[in-house]
Amino acid sequence: MSLVSVHNEWDPLEEIIVGTAVGARVPRPDRSVFTVEYADQYDNQEQVPSGPYPDRVLKETEEELQILAEELGRLGVTVRRPGERDQSATLATPDWQTDGFHDYCPRDGLLSVGQTVIETPMALRARFLESLAYKDILLEYFASGSRWISAPKPRLTDGMYDPSAPAGERLLEQEPVFDAANVLRFGTDLLYLVSDSGNELGAKWLQSAVGDAYTVHPCRKLYASTHVDSTIVPLRPGLVLVNPSRVDDGNMPEFLRSWQAITCPDLVDIGFTGDRPHCSVWIGMNLLVVRPDLAVVDRRQTGLIKLLEKHGMDVLPLQLTHSRTLGGGFHCATLDVRRTGSLETYRF
């Protein structure tokens, strides 16, 4: 029986991968880093930090990820963790060389759809071989009967990027490039964020990979930067949490217009370590739905917790102290690979 079987973001969770903060670092500045992370610093490249994150940040985060894994285990969820890798090692192709980033966010590079896991063609050069962290797990899934494919490895030459372009237009259309976290699963409908971490060709390739059973919806002018899971958060069939600073009547994806949208309240700014964060205060809405009536939410976001409870959800309050520093909340730092339920179309 395939160990991978997941059709949406909310069915009861059975198996998940939780990332690791061990060895995390900021990669050396290159054209991909400026495009995806530091476009506003393109004219002051010497100001961009690189190298390991502070030991305290990594130690505290690893402890909190372990707590998350243990709490999910108590709920009956099978939890998998990647092994350690040397992120400082040089990674090179004939076109460029760099060092690593982290294996903190399995959501970014692996996309689970149905009984398939897809290695996505990520935008950052430093993440070119990130799937190696999960190779042993992927081999086990493949042996169980799961489908395992990889998008064509992109060259990621300098011509792929334009850091000086307006936000949302910095990733060019030379080849398919997208992060898995640009995608949300709504049964047969897959939302695909066109942004600086996912281009139009990426949406076209994904549609070819998943076939006629699915419809990939390229969403434009929704959020220009990276990833979609702090912009739109599906909670259960017919109910979606939206970011009021990004989503409005004009850009709400068409297939979601029949859903009830609830607006995320103002979030607590949890702060960050270092000169600048990797994400905004909206990482506080980056929650993990365990089942339609239960979500893992940052304990500090009391307004959001009250809103979810008002709409019939229980909350497991946990914490990722350095989510703004490392660039990922509970959804980013996990990858659900098996949930109960079957493939359905959700139109209301």
Give the rounded overall mean pLDDT: 94
Shape descriptor reads globular
Radius of gyration: 19 Å
How far apart lie the N and C ends?
32 Å
Helix content: 10-25%
Strand coverage percent: 15-25%
Low-pLDDT regions:
none
Largest sheet: 3 strands, mixed
Structural class by secondary-structure content:
alpha/beta
Helix and strand string, N-terminal first? EEHEHEEEHEEHEEEHEEEEEEHEHE
Q: Please give the number of β-strands.
A: 19
Q: Please, how many helices? A: 7
Cross-sheet strand order for the largest sheet: 4-1-19
Outline:
With 348 residues, the chain is an alpha/beta fold.
Overview of this structure, please?
The mean pLDDT is 94. This protein is an alpha/beta fold and 348 residues long. Helices cover 18% and strands 22% of the residues. The chain is built from 7 helices and 19 strands. The chain has helices at residues 31-36, 55-74, 106-109, 135-143, 200-210, 302-310, 323-326, and strands at 13-18, 25-26, 51-52, 78-80, 91-92, 97-98, 110-113, 116-119, 147-150, 183-186, 189-193, 215-219, 232-236, 239-242, 260-263, 288-291, 294-298, 314-318, 334-339. The strands form 7 sheets. It has a 3-stranded mixed β-sheet with strand order 4-1-19, with helices on one face. Strands 7-8-9 form a 3-stranded mixed β-sheet. Strands 10-11-12 form a 3-stranded mixed β-sheet, with helices on one face.
